Amino acid sequence: MQNINDIVLCAAVISEGCSNVRTPRVSPDGKKIAFLRSKVGGPHAKCSQLCLLSWPSKQERIVVDVVEREKRIHDDHLFFGIYTFSGLPRRCWLKDSERLVISTVSHSDIVSCVIHTTDGTIVEMPHVGSHAVTDVFDDYLLVNFSTLAHPNQILLGCVPSKGQEDCIKMNQVTPTREIPNVSSLEYSVWEFVNDTPHPNPKYSDISISLLYYGPVSNTKGASKRPLICWPHGGPHSSSINSYSMAATFFVALGYSVVFVNYRGSIGFGQDGVDSLPGNCGLTDVDDVHKATLNCLKRFSEVLDESKVFLVGGSHGGFLVTHLAAQYPDFYKAVAARNAVTDISAMPAVSDIPDWSFVESGFTYEHDKIPDGATLSRMLEISPISRIDSIKAPILLLVGKNDARVPPSQSLYFHRLLLARGVETKLHLYDDCHPLRKVEVEADCLIHIALWLGKHWTEATE
Asked: Per the database record, which ranges form the Peptidase S9 prolyl oligopeptidase catalytic domain (predicted)?
């Protein structure tokens, strides 16, 4: 038997230029390699190109380019670009070796599209909620389907011939599951434009999308519900219309939840991503607060505007601590998971030091030491610079092994809150950034529920 140490790896560069290339996928006939490509530098999550390399000629071309704002595609649908954290599915090609299937974030949904690699035609497959392709074999698709109110199901479908892809019929593989006392509740998705001008007028008309989970009308005699505003992290990520165990938990406890895709979220064109770096702590905070007000107005007969709470993690934690400081009399209590509280302290300790520079509006150079002006700007846009304004009780949930947003961010913030007499509590877990160990996630949810419940009761008295 051959010794593995005797195997010689022969590798060669076959793609062009210097860029972020990932998830190469070979077509069934072995004559094409599809892959995603994006520019080096800037935000981690951005709009990607879908590229094709002919084999063995090594001729490379762009099939789907970066979309700056939106692109009109087959059947008059709008396409906002390719955004995916996991890249192309391991198997994404259809058996004709000319079409492939991708899933991408589109505003508040995950949509799946068939792409014709010959001419770049994009056909969005019909959907309600989010459809994420998990596997492709021959012309069969396995799709993970869910909405905020309906747990995940696996669907199976066969992609029709060219030009008929939008007629695909999906069949349930797994049964429909209902959550007692919750699945009957409605969810609502809508958008609005912030009337406060963006510092760069180019981005002022980018829409903000909201996903609301809870009753949309009140039954006779029912009390109004408290609202949890839950902005996502990233910041270049998104809240999507897919099942959330955590949101369902709080809705079952009597809250309504609103998720906000502020400007900077993915799925709104590359302009949406580019609108935030250099404006963190300003436009994102304002977008989330305006979205909360918009939600309260839309469901005024259901929601109690005197009982609004904040929950968020990572950059979402950055936002909720900022909101607590900028609107000290509006939000009644906060729960922050591994929150970014001081960007100026991050470059030396985070595993992604470039994040601090990019989101603060600077170009990252790996060999450059930040000067005083750079660090001053990072501090200025951080929640810690406004800590004297905070009144709302703050619960901090922290992973002691977090390399992304190290625990020092929350530990020091907690100490400063205590020194100012602000009610605060910190739980330290043997976990990392996502706090997703089963026992840790469960403990976090219970403590958030107890924290918010305590201050819900106090606001009622």
From this structure: 242-454
